[in-house]
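Help needed: design a sequence for this.
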């Protein structure tokens, strides 16, 4: 029988060690790898990532899952507990630690590139910095706090529960999942006998899963948006901002699009969707193509090759122009 009391850990003084790391390989078969203490690949995680890739999960999802698994394995390595010997005591203590502990303070990537020591890193001014958790007065976006957010903890619980469910099915993990479902879910799935005429009931999923509060959608007033648009110095930036707002696409989807992906005749912009990696035509506002055309005219006058090869109708530019 598994002892559910477990050892009493001093979580108040526990510090997550900076051991192990996530690496991007550039290999489409293994886009990301989790390296252990000795620098070798953590095989249970690699097997789980292969299963995710078989289920058509994109590389960005694998990277997100790896960040949660890296945090969990660091906790197990510090506690000297093998991953396949972890019990619900470890899952409970890890969930408690995530709820109370402060996030690690990392050096900004700009200073990491320069190789500066901690004493050489310039200190930021604290006079104009807002307190953690304070919403932005314009956009409503809260300032990141010193604790792990509820969204982060909920995502971590879901990833770790799925990771151990995979190995339980394979017969390679522990006897029980360290991150079990809620006791009310033991009888079956949530809303198993739901009446379609009634709203869905909110049922807890994981036993250690936090409640994520619902927030009002963030927005920016029209006056502030006009001020932001007027403050942009370059026509290219205005075209990007107009396309971003009118299409609703992600920023990385627009930044990886090329000029021939814009169709002014149909007022469509083709992007590669993040999740499916498939191309999709998105309707854009007429202002978007006006600013795009102005940018191409400026680039053409500056001698950029292929900047304005087609002036009327059709798709803009050559296949190599961005």
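Sure. Designed sequence:
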């Amino acid at each position: 029988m598994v002892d559910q009391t477990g050892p009493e850990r001093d979580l108040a003084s526990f510090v997550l060690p900076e051991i192990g790391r996530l690496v991007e390989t550039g290999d489409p078969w293994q886009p990301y790898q989790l390296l252990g203490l000795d620098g070798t690949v953590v095989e249970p995680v690699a097997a789980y990532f292969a299963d995710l890739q078989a289920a058509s999960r994109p590389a960005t999802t694998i990277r997100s899952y790896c960040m949660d698994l890296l945090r969990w394995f660091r906790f197990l390595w510090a506690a000297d507990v093998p991953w396949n010997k972890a019990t619900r005591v470890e899952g409970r203590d890890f969930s408690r630690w995530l709820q109370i502990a402060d996030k690690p303070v990392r050096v900004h990537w700009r200073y990491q590139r320069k190789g500066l020591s901690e004493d050489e890193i310039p200190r930021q001014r604290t006079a104009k910095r807002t307190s953690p958790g304070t919403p932005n007065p314009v956009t409503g976006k809260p300032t990141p706090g010193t604790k792990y957010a509820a969204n982060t903890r909920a995502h971590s619980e879901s990833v770790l529960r799925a990771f151990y469910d995979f190995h339980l099915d394979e017969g390679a993990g522990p006897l029980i999942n360290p991150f079990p479902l809620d006791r009310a879910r033991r009888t079956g799935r949530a809303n198993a006998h739901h009446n379609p005429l009634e709203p869905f009931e909110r049922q807890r999923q994981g036993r250690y899963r936090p409640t994520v509060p619902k927030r009002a959608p963030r927005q920016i007033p029209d006056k502030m948006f006009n001020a932001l648009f007027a403050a942009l110095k370059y026509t290219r930036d205005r075209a990007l901002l107009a396309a971003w707002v009118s299409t609703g696409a992600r920023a990385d989807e627009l930044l990886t699009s090329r000029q021939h992906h814009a169709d002014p005749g149909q007022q469509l912009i083709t992007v590669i969707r993040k999740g499916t990696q498939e191309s999709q035509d998105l309707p854009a506002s007429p202002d978007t193509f006006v600013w795009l055309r102005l940018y191409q005219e400026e680039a053409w006058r500056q001698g950029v090759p292929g900047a304005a090869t087609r002036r009327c109708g059709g798709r803009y530019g050559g296949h190599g122009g961005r």
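The beta strands are 21-27, 30-35, 262-263, 268-272, 279-283.
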